[in-house]
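In the current project phase, the collection of sequences with tokenised folds has grown. One resulting record follows, to show the layout:
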Amino acid sequence: MMDPKDDIEALAATNTTNDTNNNADEATTISSEEKTEAALKSDKPSLGKLFALAQPEMPMLIFSGILMVGSEGVNLITPLIVADAYDTLVDPTVLTDDARMTKINEVMTIAIIVTVAGILGGFIRATIQGVIGERVVARLRCQLYAHILKQEIAFFDEHKSGELVSRLGSDTTLLQTVISQSLPDFLVQLIKAMASMGLMFFLSAKLAGVALAGVIVIFLLSAPMGKIMARLSKEYQDVLGQAQTHSTEAIGSMRTVQGFAAEEKESKRYNEKIGNPDDIPLWWPPREPKTTYRAGFFKSITASAFFTFVFGAGFGFLNVTLWYGFYLVIQGEMTLGELTAFNSFIITVGFSMGQVANAISKVFEGMGASGRVFYLMDRVPTIPKPPPPPSSAESKTKTIETIQPESMQGNVELQNVVFHYPSRPDQIVLNDVSLKIPANSTTALVGSSGAGKSTIVSLLQRFYEVDQGRITVDGHSLDSLNLQWLRSHIGYVQQEPQLFGLTVKENMLYGVHRENVTQEEIEQASKDAHAHEFIQDWPEGYDTLVGERGVKLSGGQKQRVAIARALLTNCRILLLDEATSALDAESEHLVQQAIDKAVVGRTVIVVAHRLSTIRQADQIVVMHNHKVVDVGKHDELLARCTRYQDLIRRQSTMIRDVSMNGLASMLPDMPEDNGDSEVQFLDSASA
């Protein structure tokens, strides 16, 4: 049976505020829902930047353009060829029906050959354009994803993952449609309409003038509708991104959702963004809140009005033009064949303008997506610091260089560090913190929640930049060190380790940047982390898939895999952020044994949770109110530091009460936190 002491320590661990998981209590949460939903700003739309990504496809684009001109050109001359057949029917110089039929057969054979050539050219052109679109968007997605991964942690504090995924998915899909369909259709149909209009003027300037007036009127009246559709499309994509954020969070946390019976609550949150149509009377959505249904509803109405107007007005002007054309034929200013060809051209113009209008609406949607995508593509991460612009005076006198020492000893020093999280600039987290951590020593950080313990861990990995002061490793300021080199020498084990849906072996090698890691090295790291035994029990051993976020592993197993991963990096500095706080006694014992092996020969910084861990540290740093209040060994602090004494007293009292009365009888008598306590038990005991 588990010892009562283990019970209360496990209880404290389970309920302790989670400093570590994404620094939730100190970094990543943003104070209001409204602020997080406004996460992604939109840059100015830029199709030019999109075409820059198509530079490698330029030869095929040019070839596609030639095919477009050729295929559409032969399609346009077909009505002129067929017009000769119409004129043959009423030509008085052709005396017999057989002669007429012979002439018509010759004309229509040529027309069919020309049509087939146009269809074949159009097929090849459309295929090339589709492949080009796929290549450009695949290139865009790869570059966008790589660029997102380069952003500093503060960026992810302010931008929800669901919205970033939406940029990678929905927005790039819109851009793919623009590249492979909308823009080519726009160009093809516009050129076809202009060429048809030119041929119409060739046949009859009077009749063409009437038709052109109608086209101009339709275009001018439809342009505002296109802008409205672009705005509604942007609103739709923005709200959809927010809905995807909610669904991603919930689906990724199903144990929490179902554990708190919050399925209905999550459905309501999602419905608030999507807009459940069954809750809306008479189909008409309210002005607020903004939902995808509301944006889609008005976008559908606008699109229907847009296309109905374009096609309706187009056919209306067609009838007016034909009416005038019949008059010109009667007056002898046109032949019947010419009017027939003119009729084909005006239908082509009307259809093409409708297609142009449709393409414009899609291009406007794509432009909104391009603004959101290229906001991310153009954003320069603040860590590492970007070089000055080439045109700036600073760039002429100063170049930003980083150093990469041959080795790392592991001496760490914080010098008068002041820090605020970028997402909460009005709340100080570290206030004039100075601390020396010798190489090959173990330092435990203790203190109340929010004192800045996990923040120090984050700053050492240079997830954020300090506001004032500096942090050095072996005497080198962090911002002078090559960032990848720095992080490759730091091992990091969190309270809730992050594993990926890969094999155990792939997860262990995740942070290893050296070549030719042997299976023996992997197994030795696993043995040191007390993970080898349970891995060997699985049928596929190290090739076992751990599931999304390591869902197939227990908490203790995930923690030991994470420790093995840190050991394989051969790190000189090991950061342990409450690595045993959420484990049961047996798992904690095994993980602690793994940690005891891992700390040998390394600089270790522990956000301490257990009294046993605190006692074993070479130095203990007591933090309170965003400052370091004392540093020393366990016995020294116990003799002189009242805050440390209070921490130990509370833990000892809790354990004694559990031992005497049992866990259940003890819980109602837990000391209450009146808000003025210098060190809260659950936080101080776990921090």
Observations:
- Strands lie at 412-420, 428-437, 442-447, 468-473, 476-477, 490-493, 573-577, 603-607, 619-624, 627-632.
- The first helix runs from residue 4 to 15.
- The longest strand covers residues 428-437.
- Confidence is low (pLDDT under 50) at residues 1-42, 391-399, 661-687.
